[in-house]
Amino acid sequence: MDRKYFQICLLAIVFVGTIIVIIVCFEAKYGIREKVVESPFWQTSVVYQVYPRSFYDGQPDETGDITGITSKVDYLLELGVGAVWLSPVYTSPMKDFGYDVANFTEIDPIFGSMADFDDLVTTLHRKGLKLVMDFVPNHSSDQHEWFQRSVRCEDPYTDFYIWANSSGVDANGTQIPPNNWLSVFRGSAWEWNDERQQFYFHQFLPEQPDLNYRNHLVREEMKRVLTMWLDRHVDGFRIHALKFLFEIEDLSQNEPVATHSGVQDPDDYDYLNHTYTVDQPETLTVVREWRQLLNQYPDRVMMVEVYNDDIDAVMKYYGNETVPLADFPFNFFLIDNLQSRGDLTGESLRYTIDLWLDNMPEGKWPNWVTGNHDNGRVASRLGRDLVDALNMLTLLLPGTPVTYYGEELGMENTFISWDETKDPEGCRWGPDLYQEHSRDPERTPMQWDNCTNAGFTTANSTWLPVNPNYKVLNVKAQTQAETSHLKIYKELAVLRRADTFSKGHIAFPVVTKEIFSFLRYLEGSEKYLLVINTSEEELEVNLHRHANLPLPSSAVVVLRSVTDTSEKTHPGSEVPLDKVPLVGGEGLLLNLQAED
């Protein structure tokens, strides 16, 4: 090879190398390379449910509102949640506190204005948080324009609701409903309308008539509602009472008596098997239409409320890889299967978690819920000592945790007298039985500090009474304390972002009546073991004796329940796994150490 030829080759190599370096630098600066696909926000976020009437009163007028929520966005950010799910704020007569919607595209003045709502969305997005709205498609308020015009048989609204002729008149001259269907809120699901001279169907209150989804115009109107909110940059929807969307067409059919329910009261909803009024196959068709609509907007979530003891019926709402439906139906089995402390064992926890994971369709995403606006608070339902353990459980399992406001503090149910009761479900049962059915106790105002009204409002009173324990159980006190439920929750919210929890696998090394545990692990990352004492007794546990997989001789404590004050389990200390001390209801998170 002559010298000149060598020089040409060398220059060519330098030139090509320089071009490659320039391209790499340019790609690094401007992101020209194909980006790694990120997980959708609802897979990486804690979803935090805000009940607007009870979160913070910014007006102030005794009731929580949108400006109040906006003023607390920094709290939500510091808490570590990624998405705020907002219970209904639509225009409403408030017969069911917002779940009776008089206008699906307006904000009720009690919560503020559309400008207030837009400001909330903007503020959340600026802070990197998302907003998910409640969508209430099954019914409207009887004050909605659609219903008023349907009563008058004005087209195209004549068949916007489900109307039926009377089956006759009884001996008292009272119109007889077309069938025996019952309302969730007790009594007949049919209400006679004098003006139209027909019955209309309502699965909830008489003031909440069911929309007729067999009418394509209703479906189109509701898609327009969704589109309007999506165009206002809402990040998705939690769909309320979805299983009630359709009923069979033949309205002469009676539902069968639930012979094994033990319910003897014929007006009680559980007296019947609801084979004709819930989970009809047409519902999935409408969910598919909504899914297709949401898919036109990037990174939008659809979460659906479907209470059902039948796991297969719930799983249908996921759809499948070919026909995706909801991103997830809410997993209520940690509520339904664990109604009281007596239901809670290591074995029942394992069964309930497996129930979801083993039945979930391939490629779908789990979620975990321990409380909401329809169920008693965790501390009251299951025990104060379990607050931290169950927050550890839901935030560190694979999937999306959903937290009801105040559960990060361990808020408790509040006693509400009959005279103070607001919830229509409680009111319909009367003064002797209202406490068994009212949802007011879990809806009381957020406890911010020990000032008057728990710092919820500067007004003289609150829409529901504040729990008297607010003087010691509040955000300010738990922020200032050395250890608290709130501080543990914040640490969990940070920890769950680690690769082990966001991408890792799960195993259940030790499960007994008193002990529940799971292991989170990922190759090349740290391993964590959560151990929960489901009993109320103090225990010393030999994990090796019960383990179904190898465990190291010891582990380092990462987090523990606030009820544990032992020096042996102080965070950072090393605990031998053959002598793990646990107080009643404790959750203990351990970092497993590799053996030498």
Primary descriptors:
single chain; Oligo-1,6-glucosidase, domain 2; TIM Barrel; 4 domains; 15% strand; alpha/beta; 596 residues; 21 strands; 6-stranded antiparallel sheet; 8-stranded parallel sheet
Report what the structure shows.
29% of the residues lie in helices and 15% in strands. With 596 residues, it is of the alpha/beta class. The protein is globular, with a radius of gyration of 27 Å. The chain contains 20 helices and 21 strands. The strands form five sheets. Strands 11-10-9-5-2-1-13-12 form an eight-stranded parallel sheet. A six-stranded antiparallel sheet has the order 14-15-16-21-18-19. It has a three-stranded antiparallel sheet with strand order 6-8-7, with no helix packed on it. Mean pLDDT is 94; it is low at 18-35. Strand 14 (505-507) and strand 15 form a beta hairpin. The protein has four domains: 1-35; 43-137 and 223-243 and 281-491, TIM Barrel, CATH 3.20.20; 139-210 and 246-279, Oligo-1,6-glucosidase, Domain 2 (Oligo-1,6-glucosidase, domain 2); 502-592, Golgi alpha-mannosidase II (Immunoglobulin-like), CATH 2.60.40.
Largest sheet descriptor: 8 strands, parallel
Number of strands: 21
The first-level CATH class of the largest domain is given as Alpha Beta
* Count of discrete alpha- or pi-helical segments spanning 4 or more residues: 20
Specify the CATH architecture of the largest domain.
Answer: Alpha-Beta Barrel
CATH topology of the largest domain: TIM Barrel
What level of helicity do the residues show?
Answer: 25-40%
Shape: globular
Strand fraction equals: 5-15%
Q: Low-confidence parts lasting 5 or more residues at pLDDT below 50?
A: 18-35
Radius of gyration: 27 Å
Q: Quote the average pLDDT.
A: 94
Q: What is the CATH homology-level superfamily of the largest domain? A: Glycosidases
* Count of domain modules: 4
Q: State the strand order across the main sheet.
A: 11-10-9-5-2-1-13-12
For the record, give the distance between the C-alpha atoms at the N and C termini, rounded to a whole number.
Answer: 58 Å
Structural class: alpha/beta
